[in-house]
Automatic annotation (TrEMBL), chain A:
<dbReference type="GO" id="GO:0006814">
    <property type="term" value="P:sodium ion transport"/>
</dbReference>
<feature type="transmembrane region" description="Helical">
    <location>
        <begin position="471"/>
        <end position="495"/>
    </location>
</feature>
<keyword id="KW-0739">Sodium transport</keyword>
<dbReference type="InterPro" id="IPR019899">
    <property type="entry name" value="Na/solute_symporter_VC_2705"/>
</dbReference>
<feature type="transmembrane region" description="Helical">
    <location>
        <begin position="182"/>
        <end position="200"/>
    </location>
</feature>
<keyword id="KW-0915">Sodium</keyword>
<dbReference type="GO" id="GO:0015293">
    <property type="term" value="F:symporter activity"/>
</dbReference>
<dbReference type="InterPro" id="IPR001734">
    <property type="entry name" value="Na/solute_symporter"/>
</dbReference>
<dbReference type="InterPro" id="IPR038377">
    <property type="entry name" value="Na/Glc_symporter_sf"/>
</dbReference>
Automatic annotation (TrEMBL), chain B:
<keyword id="KW-1133">Transmembrane helix</keyword>
<dbReference type="InterPro" id="IPR019886">
    <property type="entry name" value="Na_symporter_ssu"/>
</dbReference>
<feature type="domain" description="Sodium symporter small subunit">
    <location>
        <begin position="8"/>
        <end position="77"/>
    </location>
</feature>
<keyword id="KW-0812">Transmembrane</keyword>
<keyword id="KW-0472">Membrane</keyword>
<dbReference type="Pfam" id="PF13937">
    <property type="entry name" value="DUF4212"/>
</dbReference>
<feature type="transmembrane region" description="Helical">
    <location>
        <begin position="43"/>
        <end position="65"/>
    </location>
</feature>
<protein>
    <submittedName>
        <fullName>Putative solute:sodium symporter small subunit</fullName>
    </submittedName>
</protein>
<feature type="transmembrane region" description="Helical">
    <location>
        <begin position="17"/>
        <end position="36"/>
    </location>
</feature>
Length: 595, 79
């Protein structure tokens, strides 16, 4: 069957499933809209959290980032999973006990301050919007590539589908849809990985195949890969080539940022009990780990396959010829992806072959001169195409390619829906009901939540169509904000009875402003090119890159809040009692019944 | 329920468990995964790419199990 028809069938069937679930799980009350009526089983909630958390970045980008760098980019694997330990031990059970709907609501109540709530709303909206833009752009690209519609049409189809299930279903619709999306995305991620692992190592479990032996030679796969890439002048795959400080701080920033992202925290409001909130964080990580343990195998095996395709006789032999690339079915993926502009090659020295090597490495100069190479001829390989192109690179059947397309869309759409829900609840619950029109009825709050959601989708679609050109950098900003403002405020609100309103607001503002200014100093003010005073190659402070700065921002937040709180009056007695009650699981059901 | 002595003891026990869990949470990825890489590159590669994720899972499930038991010991579970 034609690949194009297969793509339509897989994507169409998965979308029909999501919409069917949304119709079945319509939300009737604010409790169902914001927290799915707190009736979600911890295993299902864990699965939904997994889909919510694993975005286009995890599904599409991460394995590519690891493939071309190796060990150094393990930071993504450790950072994006380690945050769940912080969530499970320091936030989830207490926020569930608190028994309200949103992150700003907790910050506002605990720090008895509408200013604190407002600061939290602003942080939440900025972090979520920047994140959503990336998802919508990803949806557009995936549609463009697989359904061969133009980017705009693809994005509008995606927006319409999210609209259908998020606006009507609220958290309830989103949760059950995300469960289905999780199943689609994990199947789509692991099936090609299993095929490739079997081809290369004979082991059906990719995570084990990574540390196994190469089929045929009996050499360990990683040792073979190290030899292969170093022969071509690239850095060794399994050892470190970047500095320790940034690796530690970047991992820590991703961990703290993960635990501070509101759409993830919100998920723990949906489980029935405090004990379930603890289990639910564990189940979420189980479902995330299924993908994250496979991702390093996907990366290493793809690097292996790609390098071998360019050097079919090994790195000491002859490179692949242009003629082979243009005619052999094994290289058809290169033609397909060249059309997208994300992959390109050029026969610079006119020898009819494409030499792929590291032309910046001095050790290869001698060989390059001898063989009259004039530079790396694989001129562009966008890392984001690796996972999507992987089944084609390994010559897997057409239905696997279509499945991966549906999986990438599931990852992007489920995260987009979770973020939009976080934005709409912040607007309708924290801004409208909390500050502007406190006497709003439940029916009109539900209506305003739906309108806020529709507006948020419209804004995200507009920004996805006209991306500000800095989607990649803004991810650093989203994590920086979540790490430097939201996580420390939540944690101190639970673990300290002494931190007061002035301290919390001062801490959030200092953490937020210093982090954002540090990022702008390195990436340009509001990401406008050439307005930066420093670069990440030569950073301002102790050699810390702007992407690693979130952890420093969090530290500043903690320090400022504690100093200011100790210099001002302790929180009133009822707030100290609130903290006491949040720390004790008993009575959690009663808090939920208020709504 | 403010300042009941048994609640303070419950909270102190919780803090002890959380502290130990976080010590392991920090040592495995940052110690074995990153800092000790020059000494044990092979182990560090495995810890950084897979081992730390398995340890995080173990920590969370241990904590959930231990805390649910602690809740019952102090009679603060949700019943």
């Amino acid at each position: 069957m034609d690949q194009f028809v297969l793509n339509w069938i897989f994507i169409g069937a998965s979308f029909a499933l999501y919409i069917g679930i949304a119709i079945w799980a319509r939300a009737g009350s604010t409790s169902e809209f914001y927290a799915a009526g707190r009736g979600v089983h911890p295993v299902l909630n864990g699965m939904a959290t997994g889909a919510d958390w694993m975005s286009a970045a995890s599904f599409i980008s991460m394995a590519g980032l690891i493939a071309f760098v190796g060990y150094d980019n393990s930071t993504f694997l450790m950072g994006w999973t380690g945050g769940y330990v912080l969530l499970a031990l320091m936030l989830a059970p207490y926020l569930r006990k608190f028994g309200k709907f949103t992150v700003p609501e907790f910050i506002g109540d605990r720090f008895y301050s509408s200013t604190a709530r407002l600061v939290a709303v602003i942080c939440l909206i900025v972090a979520s919007i920047t994140y959503v833009i990336g998802q919508m752009t990803g949806v557009g690209v995936a549609f463009g590539r697989f359904l061969e519609v133009d980017n705009t049409t693809g994005l509008l189809i995606g927006a319409a589908v999210v609209f259908a299930y998020a606006v009507f279903g609220g958290m309830k619709g989103v949760t059950y849809t995300q469960v289905a999306q999780y199943v689609v995305l994990i199947t789509a991620y692991t099936i090609p990985a299993i095929f490739i692992s079997l081809q290369l190592t004979g082991n059906p479990i990719p995570a084990l195949g990574l540390f196994g032996d190469t089929a045929g030679t009996g050499q360990p796969l990683l040792a073979t890969l190290d030899q292969l890439v170093t022969d071509l002048g690239f850095a060794e795959y399994t050892t470190r080539n970047s500095d320790t400080l940034n690796m530690v701080l970047f991992t820590l920033s991703l961990m703290i940022g993960t635990a501070g992202l509101p759409h993830v925290i919100m998920r723990f409001f949906t489980v029935p009990t405090v004990a379930d909130a603890r289990w639910s964080a564990g189940w979420a990580l189980v479902f995330i780990a299924l993908l994250y343990l496979t991702a390093p195998a996907v990366g290493a095996m793809a690097r292996f396959n790609i390098t071998n395709q360019f050097w079919p006789d090994g790195p000491q032999g002859e490179a692949v010829s242009v003629e082979t690339i243009e005619t052999s079915p094994e290289y058809a993926w290169m033609q397909t992806w060249q059309k997208t502009g994300l992959l390109n090659w050029e026969d610079l020295n006119g020898d009819g072959k494409i030499q792929y090597y590291n032309d910046a490495n001095a050790d290869l100069q001698a060989r390059a001169e001898e063989s009259s190479w004039t530079g790396n001829e694989l001129t562009k390989f966008d890392r984001d195409i690796l996972v999507l192109a992987n089944p084609e690179i390994a010559n897997l059947p057409g239905w696997v390619v279509a499945l991966v397309a549906a999986g990438g869309l599931a990852a992007a759409l489920s995260t987009a829906a979770g973020l939009l829900l976080a934005i709409s609840s912040a607007v309708s619950h924290d801004l409208m009901k909390g500050q502007l029109t406190p006497n709003m009825s439940e029916a009109s709050e539900l209506m305003s939540a739906r309108i806020a959601m529709a507006v948020a989708i419209a804004v995200a679609t507009y920004l996805g169509l006209n991306p500000p050109g800095f989607a990649a950098q803004t991810v650093a900003l989203a994590f920086g904000i979540a790490a430097a403002s939201i996580f420390p405020a939540l944690m101190m609100g639970i673990f300290s009875k002494r931190v007061n309103n002035t301290g919390a607001v001062a801490g959030m503002l200092v953490g937020l402003i210093v982090t954002v200014v540090y990022i702008f100093l390195h990436k340009g003010w509001f990401f406008i090119p050439d307005t930066n005073s420093y670069t990440d190659a030569a950073p301002l402070f102790l050699g810390i890159k702007s992407t690693s700065f979130g952890a420093v921002g969090a530290l500043l937040n903690f320090g400022t809040a504690i100093l200011v709180s100790n210099a001002t009056a302790a929180p009133p007695k009822e707030i100290q009692e609130l903290v006491e009650s949040v720390r004790i699981p008993r009575g959690a059901g009663a808090a939920a019944a208020d709504h | 329920m403010s300042d009941k002595p048994e609640n303070n003891a419950y909270w102190a026990a919780n803090i002890r468990i959380v502290t130990w869990c976080l010590v392991i949470w920090a040592i495995v990825p940052f110690g074995f995964g990153i800092l000790l890489e020059p000494i044990m590159p092979g182990l560090a590669f495995w810890v950084a790419q897979q081992g730390s994720i398995l340890v995080f899972l173990a920590i969370i499930f241990f904590y959930a199990w231990r805390m649910n038991r602690l809740d019952r010991e102090f009679g603060v579970d949700e019943q």
